[in-house]
Each structure stands twice: as C-alpha cells, then as structure tokens.
Write a structure and sequence with these properties.
By secondary structure, the chain is mostly beta strands. It has no helices and 8 strands. Strands 1, 2, 3, 4, 5, 6, 7 and 8 form an 8-stranded antiparallel sheet that branches.
C-alpha cells in the first residue's frame, strides 16, 4: 500500500482543473498543467485546486504517485510521461524520483510510494 512520509511543499497556480480525486498524486508542471515530461516538473500534487487557485505541490520527500507503466525494481529511477504519470527512466532521460522498496514491483495505474529529491 502506498503511503506518504515527510515531504516539503511549494505552491503552484492551477491552470488545469485539479479539483477531482483523480488529479491528486500526479506530477504537475510549474506552468499549472499536468507534467508531460520531466523537464518542467514542479512536483507531486498534494491538494485540490480549481483553475486559478493555489495548489500544494510536494518537491522533496516521500510521497504517493501514480505509475504509468510497470516497474519491477525498488530504487529504480523514474521519469514523467504524459498526464503526470511515472515510467522507468532510460539513458538520457531526467529522473524525478525513485521507487521505494514497499511499492516494488508495481503495475501501470498503481499508486506507489516514491522518494523525491536527494540523490537520484
């Protein structure tokens, strides 16, 4: 079961509607949209917000996030794919977090525990 641990947050003004439960735990970009790749990631959405409102975004710590592909190994470096989901990083991609041991292995669509920040 995925869990949140201690984490640090910042705020982002939502452009997309993040008021539904389906929005939580996805990676978002600094411009207020769901992150489409790792280069614009602000962090993981931790609060609901409608367009124009401030939302809390975790940028460091232990948080829940959605896997967009199967991941088999704990400690695996993960990157962001479309709509704020995670996938296994490959050579040359930017890692945004690592999968924790309690969430490995996982399937696409699973809510998993990841470590943000630190040495990736």
């Amino acid at each position: 079961m995925a869990t949140d641990g201690p984490y640090q947050t910042n705020q982002v003004v939502a452009v997309d509607d993040w008021s539904t439960s389906a929005a939580l735990h996805k990676f978002v970009a600094h411009d207020g949209t769901f992150a489409a790749d790792a280069t614009k990631v602000a962090g993981v959405l931790k609060s609901h917000a409608k367009a124009g409102q401030l939302a809390r975004v975790a940028f460091e710590g232990i948080v829940k996030a959605y896997a967009g592909a199967a991941v088999t190994s704990a400690g695996c470096a993960l990157t962001v794919t479309t709509s704020g989901f995670l996938a296994v990083g490959s050579y040359g991609t930017t890692a945004v977090c690592r999968l924790t041991a309690q969430s490995a292995p996982c399937a696409s669509g699973d809510l998993v525990t990841v470590q943000l920040g630190g040495v990736l």
